[in-house]
Amino acid sequence: MLDVAEGRTDHPGVLPIVQAGDPVLRRPAAPYTGQLGDVLPRLLGAMRRTMHAAPGVGLAAPQVGIGLAIAVCEDAGVPDDPRDRHPLPFRVLVNPRCAPVDDAPDVPFYEGCLSVAGWQAVVARHRRVRLTGQDEHGTALDEVLTGWPARIVQHETDHLHGRLYLDAAVPRSLTSNENLLRHFAGDPDPGRAAQELGFDLPGA
């Protein structure tokens, strides 16, 4: 998942990020059952470096060309952000699943993706989700996430099912990163963009 800039690969130990149009992004990832053995820690380290260098807050294995149900995520958070962007400590998601925990309306915000470099669009997602699965050691995960961390894990879980954020986005909201900053000053509230670009905010 995109943080604030387009993907880069000009750092040591950083993997190339697969871009939209590559079939690996559209195939459901195979469940991870130990296929990588002792190589797994090296892959996770490379994925974390790649995510940080991009910069991003999440990265799924299919985004580096590996069709296994593994993802990493981490976000330092942004204080007083209307997206409820509180910190998400680094974690590894293995065979993750996300499910809404209530019937609250979905929350619309601009979202980007390291595999759709240079673009963002509005996506409505659940504000609270229950995350289940395992970590890299096989320890069970079962927790409720809210706000931006919930959006991050939903985005990465989608990748593992062959979905891109654009599949659920409002088409008319699509903007380049440059224009989002130029015309809307990077405002995390998509309300003004909705007025200027002529689209309804889903879930609002």
From TrEMBL:
<keyword id="KW-0378">Hydrolase</keyword>
<feature type="binding site">
    <location>
        <position position="155"/>
    </location>
    <ligand>
        <name>Fe cation</name>
    </ligand>
</feature>
<keyword id="KW-0408">Iron</keyword>
<feature type="active site">
    <location>
        <position position="156"/>
    </location>
</feature>
<dbReference type="Pfam" id="PF01327">
    <property type="entry name" value="Pep_deformylase"/>
</dbReference>
<feature type="binding site">
    <location>
        <position position="113"/>
    </location>
    <ligand>
        <name>Fe cation</name>
    </ligand>
</feature>
<keyword id="KW-0479">Metal-binding</keyword>
<feature type="binding site">
    <location>
        <position position="159"/>
    </location>
    <ligand>
        <name>Fe cation</name>
    </ligand>
</feature>
<dbReference type="InterPro" id="IPR036821">
    <property type="entry name" value="Peptide_deformylase_sf"/>
</dbReference>
<feature type="region of interest" description="Disordered">
    <location>
        <begin position="185"/>
        <end position="204"/>
    </location>
</feature>
<protein>
    <recommendedName>
        <fullName>Peptide deformylase</fullName>
        <ecNumber>3.5.1.88</ecNumber>
    </recommendedName>
</protein>
<dbReference type="InterPro" id="IPR023635">
    <property type="entry name" value="Peptide_deformylase"/>
</dbReference>
<keyword id="KW-0648">Protein biosynthesis</keyword>
<dbReference type="GO" id="GO:0042586">
    <property type="term" value="F:peptide deformylase activity"/>
</dbReference>
<comment type="similarity">
    <text>Belongs to the polypeptide deformylase family.</text>
</comment>
<comment type="function">
    <text>Removes the formyl group from the N-terminal Met of newly synthesized proteins. Requires at least a dipeptide for an efficient rate of reaction. N-terminal L-methionine is a prerequisite for activity but the enzyme has broad specificity at other positions.</text>
</comment>
